[in-house]
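Co-fold these.
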Amino acid sequence: MNIVASHRRQGPLAAIIRPRHASRYAPLTSWLLAFPLVATFATGFLYPLSKLVALSFANGAESYVRLLEDFLYVRVMTTTVATAAAVTVFCILLGYPVAFAMTRLRGKAALITAACVFIPLWTSVLIRSYAWIVLLQRNGLVNDFLQSAGLSDQPLKLLYTLGTVVMGMTHILLPFAILPIYATLRTLPPDFARAAANLGAGPFRTFFSITLPLSLPGLFAGAILCFVLALGFYITPALIGGPGSMLMATLIGQQTTVLLDWPFAAALSTVLLAVALLIVFLFRRALSLSKGFHSVH
Amino acid sequence: MTLRHVEKTYGTVWAVRQTDLEVGAGEFVSIVGPSGSGKTTLLTMIAGFEPPTAGSIRVGDRDVTMLAPNRRNIGMVFQKYALFPHMTVRQNIAFPLRMRDLARGQSADKRIDAMLELVQLHGLQHRYPHQLSGGQQQRVAVARTLVFDPPVILMDEPLGALDKKLREAMQFEIKRIQERIGATVIYVTHDQEEALTMSDRVAVMHKGRVEQIGTPSDLYSNPDSAFVADFVGSINFVPGIVCGQDRSHTGIKVRNTVIQVPRPTGRSTYRQREGAAVRIAARPEHISIAPYQDHDAQSLSGTIETIVFAGATRTALVRLHGSPDLVLRADVPSSFRSLPQRGSHVALVLCSEALRIFDAERVE
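Predicted complex below.
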């Protein structure tokens, strides 16, 4: 009981990934099983990462000073965080109803909904980003329609704005919000909603006082996934974003491939990583402070 | 509370067939039956989670058949309690009051305190459900249901998840609370013993219909059907052939023995057809074991297979002579002096006043 309970305090992802009654292996077996991953992680991630951080200090703290002093870079930073936050909010707002519906649907409707969530997820980000170009370019589908319908007499500038980037990223990251929420909602016994109704709560109050609070672990997990992925998103902003909507990943790409200023690119990456870690940490703190969540399942 | 002709079908499958049930104020009525007999479906319809296909449900003079569950004011204790895990014990109990906008103010606090007192959980009011034992969670669930004073309380196998000792303690606890506040309770269980000990009346459900409803002793001594006889308590069925009836008794021939069974007084018009295949139903305590030399034309004989110690009684399993497939249970008081030995031949005397006759089992 205590073992299970302590597992549940490990945050939202653990609540989803960890099976209900994880049986325990002997320590040696556990290490052997984990070894391939640990080894890959160490050589493929930790080592390059430490090189990267070291590289960012190649000229002392000069790169960091430059980053903080130049208004342009600070603006890219805040735009990135704001964009990621906006994308996260949209993903949750749009994804929650879909996840909720998926738990209720049966038969064909459930299959179609699941296909709508999964098939985009299995499609390359590149293709999905190009799809937006096809739709939104000057003589694309949307402009053609608007003009032929007489709603506009000249093609509108729909691409290469920050709004388009947020829309495109929301579209691409939506499954990452839907799936954890769905996973949590599905483990909620229907008895909770029934009990709430029995005790006098209408559908609205049942949702806000029972279903929503109990699904917060999944919601947080989805939010973290979306936010962290959005922070480092490269392809979509690069394709459908304009120069006015420069984000961190695009900036880092520019520094490494065009300007070849590797120490500065490393400093930018380190800052981005630090922000991502900070956000994850804060989320987990927020979650562990709200009591009772780890006992949901 | 009254159910009239309530039915439920899923597609072409019957879950509950025309059911009538009347429960008086302050009454404790159990619904028992094997799983799949429709008892839980009946409960979900009363609670309003599913509408009945036909029929009506009334509470007092209010027709609630089509009312949403949150407007019915019927309490329900769930099998797995369904306590809200993100709320403390106190918050759980306050929930129904909050939903009625009654949670604030001294009278609400007093009411919640009274409930905590009633279920003896005052010291644990700020704990979360996962910090409680099964029995404590059960008591919270009961308190949460009682706090809004529902005219009818439904309980869906509320003790199913507890171990035997605790279950027995909780049976008395629920009974005590029910009697103290005079609540009307409909209690669903698959445990017939639980139903017999707790209820004023018991309804036995089988294949979607109520087979019989009556007081526990009524069901035990006067079962209407072989199913009820078998489900309530344990019973032996001895197949035989009807041979000779008079005004008060029916003779049943079992191999070379003729056993006289009293005819039910209630339905004197009902006559068994001569030569019809029937079953005699005899409770283990109505079969007594006698030495083999006492075997006569009125008794059966057999060989003792096993004797099982069961506290106050011992249960002997006796294989009938001439019917190798038939093993009867007979209860012998443990204090009985000359307990027969395993393997010995004995005579079995059926206490004729307590016997019942049912039609022979149809091969299905």
